[in-house]
UniProtKB/TrEMBL annotation:
Cellular component GO terms, alphabetical: chromosome; cytoplasm
Subunit: Homodimer.
Chain's gene name: smc
Coiled-coil residue windows: 191-397, 570-625, 668-737
Keywords associated with the record: ATP-binding, Coiled coil, Cytoplasm, DNA-binding, Nucleotide-binding
The organism's place on the tree of life at top rank: Bacteria
Listed name of the protein: Chromosome partition protein Smc
Domain remark text: Contains large globular domains required for ATP hydrolysis at each terminus and a third globular domain forming a flexible hinge near the middle of the molecule. These domains are separated by coiled-coil structures.
Membrane as UniProt keyword: no
UniProt GO BP: chromosome condensation; chromosome segregation; DNA replication; sister chromatid cohesion
Keyword Coiled coil found: yes
Cellular localisation: Cytoplasm
Function statement: Required for chromosome condensation and partitioning.
Length: 993
């Protein structure tokens, strides 16, 4: 039976060239001198079948299996061996192929070892399992060398047992037992470890369960509280918002009224001052005119005396005249005097008419100017009103934003920073945020941005006292000397940084002066910024919802799992604040310009009005004076006509008023003319005095009127200020309450003011009961004390782990029992098969012993019959004519025959497909060699033999001979040879080899 059909080797030991050995016979002989590489054939078979021991392959390390070179051949860097087997009898039971090729390759450079079965890559274990089926293992009788024979008889009983284990097929059972035992040890270790873990968890579970139940109670109550509190707080915020809006409108209206009334009072007071000045000016002018008037009166009086004297002289001169002449002179004199008055009155009228024309023109000019100024003032007021509306709307929006961000109190602190001392500024004013991060930071820390950074806690104390004293709201202070900020550090920080979508930690992506770093870390130190919602959810799960996470779009995941999403109009507080401030500043500047312009125009309007009123009064006075003068003039003309008629009756001549002949003019007439002129001046002075007196009285009346009006206005202003103060105080209270509600919503639930205002209002049957329930829940939560919310998940996880380990423990115990049962079954199978092979060998041993010894008997015995699995094997032998109690008493040849007889008995009991005999018969004498060789023939029906030999008796009995030579030093060459050539080859072997 040719089981091994072919060996192909290249690079293995001395097989430098590709070498092929075709085995088509049942008994093959291999001959050659020592050192030629005969045993390398055996080593090649061992190596290809998975041998790992370099010592078993007659080397020091694995590299020794590769051709190391010779004097004229370089070393190779690989070794490859292929064994071709006939598997038609399915010796390899797991391979359903008639031919099985097993290949092993080794690369010295890469250190790669590759194994193949029928050109398919396999593991070394697969090759070793295949070797077990052939019996070609380290301890089996499939490979028998001279050393094996010599040590077999001399070996201890326990060591000798290994060969019988292999023969009994116990090796695979022992392997299975070793694997099962190793697995059992590992399983028991695993069981102990699992039980330790389970016991540790079991010790922790009761406390965790208590904490979990407490946390569940807390969670239930907090959820109920949140439901009620959010509903109540959002309702309060809406109510506060409506009231604040109403009061803000009322406050704006009152402020405007106060402003208008204050301006009116200022104008009235200014006009009052002007009236005083005008009165003073009028009095001065009156004094001056009175002096002039008195001077004129004095002068007129003096002239009248002179006139009377002249008339007396003239009368004395006329005593001798005729009565008619006297009378005519009197008429002439009276006519001339009256005519003088007529001329003077006419001059007066001319002056007054000229003045009236001037004053009317001035009045028309002032009226036009007044109308234009009035239109300008109205236009300015309309534009100012529009700007005020814009400003009020912006302030309302900013006010609402400020209050929603708890900025009211902060602003009060900033406004009085110098008074308080130690105020650095709001956190928002100290940081710089890139535009791409502004939404994320706004959403994550809007409330914190309005916290006020202070130098020390003492400064905070003064600031708190200021807020209390002025009821200016509540503020979060960040004193730099006491802050102990918390940031994410250590392995957890590194792990978070490696998460997909990670942008940065909020306190790292915001810029601030390093001296204020503690405030920034306190506010933003545990906030993580990621790119989008999916990244946020993934990160939150990975860190067990421990920290605040916010996306660039403004979604926010709070600790413990609450999620805030959506979008509001003003969620970027940085951009919103800057825009609002810019708009307000621009409108305020324009409004201030308009207000100043209105003041200037109003002053001009008031001045024009006063001038116009004065002009109108002067027109009325002049018109009245002219009418009186015309009446007087007409009366004097009539008198002149009457005198002229009387004069004509006497003289026959008419008197002409236009006759300016002065030749006959009397001295008294001259005085009369001068007196008339002075009286004209006196009358004009009197008119001016009267006008000034009238103005003075008018100014006095206006002063009184203004005083009375201002008194009423001041009282009205005081009342308005009281109302404004009350509205402001009420507004302050509402702001504070609104801030507190919004702060609880923002910090507790992540709900902004815009979101709160958009939420649907929840209706309660009894709101008071709900508020009482909130108080009760708040007290219950306080009574619960410290709560570990992680205990819920931790308890569930630990409980699941405990249950899992409980199941694992049961399964592992079952596995232990199963492994113990397997080991027990293996022990039974090994014991059964071992006893069977010993019995079978004992049955075949007597015949084999007789054939090799030519007689005698032999038997295998147990050294420990009670422990078959551990017992050693002794051999009792009785060679022909001898009684031996100890194998060591036999000669070397006899020991070899004993070993061979036992080995052949094993082959008979358990035939192997292939046996390699490597100079196994070397110690035998020629007769026994001949007997040995012939005896092998009895086994060739079931076993293929490869015999490496030097003995002629063996060579004569093999089917084919292969000669092994080294024509080139270090390189083995194999050829088929005849018996005679084999004898020559052995004969030529060096005596030293």
């Amino acid at each position: 039976m040719a089981f091994l059909k072919q060996i192909r080797a290249h690079g293995f030991k001395s097989f430098a060239d590709p070498t092929i050995l075709d085995f088509s016979h049942d008994m093959i002989g291999v001959v050659g001198p020592n050192g030629s590489g005969k045993s390398n054939i055996t080593d090649a078979i061992r190596w290809a079948l998975g041998e790992q021991s370099a010592k078993s392959l007659r080397g020091s390390n694995l590299d020794d299996v590769v051709f190391s070179g010779s004097s004229d051949r370089p070393a190779l860097d690989f070794a490859e061996v292929t064994l071709v087997f006939d598997n038609s009898n399915r010796v390899f039971s797991t391979i359903d192929e008639d031919v099985v090729e097993i290949t092993r390759k080794f690369n010295k450079k890469t250190r790669d070892s590759d194994f193949f079965i029928n050109n398919e890559r396999v593991k070394m274990r697969d090759i070793q399992d295949a070797a077990l089926e052939t019996g070609l293992t380290k301890s089996s009788i499939a490979i028998i060398s001279q050393g094996t024979i010599s040590t077999f008889a001399e070996a201890k009983a326990e060591a000798r047992r290994e060969i019988f284990d292999e023969a009994a097929g116990v090796a695979k059972y022992k392997k299975r037992k070793r694997e099962a035992t190793a697995k059992l040890i590992k399983t028991v270790e695993n069981l102990n470890r699992v039980e330790d873990l389970m016991n540790e968890i079991a010790r922790r579970l009761p406390n965790l369960e208590r904490q979990s139940n407490k946390a569940l109670a807390y969670k239930s109550k907090i959820e109920e509280l949140q439901k009620y509190e959010v509903a109540i707080l959002t309702r309060d915020v809406k109510i506060f918002k409506n009231k604040i809006d109403q009061l803000s409108i009322q406050k704006s209206a009152l402020t405007e009224k106060v402003k208008i009334l204050s301006n009116d009072i200022n104008f009235s007071e200014k006009e009052f001052s002007e009236m005083i000045n005008e009165t003073s000016t009028s009095e001065i002018s009156m004094f001056e005119l009175n002096d002039k008037f008195n001077e004129l009166v004095q002068r007129i009086s003096e002239l009248k005396v002179k006139k009377n004297d002249a008339e007396s002289r003239e009368n004395n001169q006329n005593k001798n005249d005729h009565a008619d002449e006297i009378k005519a002179k009197q008429y002439k004199k009276e006519f001339d005097e009256k005519n003088i008055n007529v001329q003077i009155e006419k001059e007066k009228q001319q002056q007054w008419n000229n003045r009236l024309t001037e004053v009317k023109e001035k009045y028309d000019y002032l009226s036009d100017k007044f109308e234009n100024l009035y239109a300008e003032v109205n236009s300015i007021r309309e534009n100012a009103w529009r700007l005020k509306m814009q400003k009020e709307n912006l302030e309302k929006q900013q006010h609402s934003s400020n209050f929603s961000n708890a900025n009211y109190g902060s602003q009060a602190i900033i406004n009085h920073a110098k008074t308080i001392g130690g105020v650095i500024g709001t956190l928002m004013s100290l940081v710089q945020v890139q535009e791409k991060h502004q939404v994320a930071i706004s959403v994550a820390a809007a409330a914190s941005m309005h916290s006020v950074v202070m130098k020390t806690s003492d400064d905070v104390k003064r600031a708190v006292e200021f807020l209390k004293r002025n009821q200016a709201g509540r503020v979060t202070f960040l004193p730099l000397n006491t802050l102990n900020p918390s940031t994410i550090q250590g392995p957890q920080r590194t792990a978070i940084q490696q998460q997909p979508g990670f942008i940065g930690f909020a306190n790292d992506i915001v810029t601030i002066d390093e001296q204020y770093r503690a405030a920034l870390d306190y506010a933003l130190g545990t906030i993580i910024v990621v790119d989008n919602y999916d990244s946020a959810i993934m990160l939150a799960k990975n860190i067990n919802y421990r920290f605040n996470i916010v996306t660039l779009e403004g979604e926010r995941i709070l600790p413990h799992g609450a999620i805030v999403g959506g979008k509001t109009k003003n969620q970027n507080i940085f951009a919103q604040t800057q825009q609002s401030e810019n708009n307000l500043e621009e409108i305020s500047e324009k409004l201030q310009q308009f207000e100043q312009l209105e003041l200037d125009k109003n002053q001009q309007l008031n001045d024009v009005k006063n001038d116009r009123d004065k002009t109108r009064d002067e027109i009325n006075t002049l018109s009245s004076t002219i009418r009186v003068s015309i009446d007087a003039y007409n009366q004097m003309i009539n008198q002149l006509r009457s005198i002229s008629e009387d004069y004509k009756i006497i003289t026959g001549k008419s008197l002409d008023p236009n006759d300016n002949t002065k030749s006959n003019e009397l001295e008294s007439i001259k005085f009369a003319k001068e007196i008339a002129k002075l009286e004209l001046e006196r009358d004009n002075a009197q008119l001016e005095i009267n006008a000034l007196s009238a103005n003075k009285n008018k100014y006095a009346d206006r002063q009184k009127e203004l005083n009375e009006q201002n008194s009423v206005k001041r009282q009205e202003l005081s009342d308005l200020k009281d109302q404004l103060s009350k509205v402001s105080a009420e507004l302050e209270v509402l702001h504070v309450r609104n801030i507190e509600s919004l702060k609880r919503l923002t910090e507790g639930y992540g709900i902004t003011s815009d979101t709160a205002l958009e939420m649907e209002e929840v209706q309660f049957e009894n709101e008071e009961e709900v508020r009482d329930r909130i108080i009760q829940l708040t007290n219950d939560l306080r009574d619960l004390g410290n709560v570990n919310l992680d205990a819920i998940v931790e308890y569930q996880q630990e409980k699941e782990r405990h249950d899992y380990y409980l199941v694992q423990t049961k399964e592992i115990r079952e596995a232990v029992e199963k492994l113990e049962s397997i080991i027990h079954d293996i022990d039974i199978a090994m014991e059964t098969q071992f006893k069977k092979v010993i019995d079978d060998v004992n049955e075949a041993l007597p015949e084999a012993f007789r054939r090799l010894f030519g007689g005698g008997t032999a038997k295998l015995i147990y050294t420990d019959p009670e422990n078959i699995l551990e017992t050693g094997i002794d051999i009792q032998v009785s060679p022909p004519g001898k009684k031996i109690s100890n194998l060591n008493l036999l000669s070397g040849g006899e020991k070899s025959l004993v070993a061979l007889s036992v080995l052949f008995s094993i082959l008979k009991a358990r035939p192997l497909p292939l046996v390699i005999l490597d100079e196994a018969e070397a110690p035998l004498d020629p007769a026994n060699v001949e007997r040995f060789a012939r005896y092998i023939k009895h086994f060739t029906n079931h076993t293929q033999f490869i015999v490496v030999t030097h003995r002629e008796g063996t060579m004569e009995n093999v089917d084919i001979l292969f000669g092994v030579t080294m024509e080139t030093k270090g390189i083995t060459k194999i050829v088929k040879i005849k018996l005679i050539d084999a004898k020559k080859m052995v004969a030529e072997e060096s005596p030293t080899t």
